[in-house]
Specification:
- The protein is an alpha/beta fold.
- The chain has 14 helices and 14 strands.
- Helix 2 crosses helix 4 (70-90) and helix 4 packs parallel to helix 5.
- InterPro entries: Tobamovirus_resist_UPF0261, UPF0261, UPF0261_C, UPF0261_N.
Amino acid sequence: MKKTIAIAGTFDTKGDEYLYIKHLIESLGLGTFTIHTGVFEPTFIPDVSNREVAEAAGADMKALAAKKDRALATEVLSKGMEKLVPELYKQGKFDGIISFGGTGGTSLVTPGMRALPIGVPKVMVSTVASGNTAPYVGTSDIVMMPSVVDVAGLNSISTKIFTNAAFAIAGMVQFENTQVIEKKPLIAATMFGVTTPCVTAARNYLEARGYEVLVFHATGVGGQSMEALIEAGFIEGVLDLTTTEWADELIGGVLNAGPHRLEAAARNLIPQVVSVGALDMCNFGPYDTVPEKFAGHKFYKHNPTVTLMRTTVEENEAIGKKLMEKLNMAKEKTVLMLPLQGISGIDVKGEAFYGPEEDQMLFDTLRKGINRNVVELIEMDCAINDVEFAEAAAQKLIELMNK
């Protein structure tokens, strides 16, 4: 059966560009399935009209166009794409999707791309691909490709970029990985540079016992991605040893994962072992970007682009209360482990962020606040990166999963 690529975009303003891609993909022996996301009449007849996209969002396209409100139209049509695109995929209409655009075009199509399952090929050629792509990619696997020049006409640069993108999506769709990978129980783990020894030892312990471990870098998007995979039903156990994103969320750092971090496992009754890894720090960019209000804090220049800030006693109390709140959402199969001799690689005796008083406040707040009826507390007289702590956490998760 011929593989098909969906081409979605504003066929009213960029019809020539999209026809170029359509013909190119078809010349490779692939089918195309076109979705019009523009406000006005397209330059060629699409397989899915903008009227159908608007209807998916509960709106009337003619009434929407008459308002001449671009922001409103983008909002409505993007919601329509978010609902319609996964439905069309389930119907077998396409095997991968590609689009081109500026900020508007990117905002129109990426919500639909994000709603597709992980693994479905998704390519977005965009003028904003080299900037902050988090609003467009989210926790999905969209491939963002810089357009270099604006998506406005066919020229020596744009045609080369468009051709590369078309070949990329064609290759993704045509060449499937047929290697059979043994199905193993899937575990999600969180890691930061300063908790790497711990998570590496835990991962080795688990893999030696027949588990597959996905490690997420706790940089905001990493935590969000893990939560999304838990919600989607991929994960059977969670080793959430690095909850540092909550420090950034509460204090104002740059690596926050949003207000729903540490909820998915509890909500879905997934066994979880949680710890306080790297909560001794909040993250910023280069040193001169740290807000003035944090003057007086202790700082550590991790590298030229990353500055770490030591959390205070008061901040650790707030962090402890938030973790307590999230942990108490659990109904069962949840363990909190506290490494009493240090919660990161630089929070041990002799290192830059060693802070017994700060850590004590964090520990005491959690001890007092967690619901012992649903959260088991384990305290160990060692540092988080000690092998004994890592392996104890891994073994405890195995026990929870085997119950």
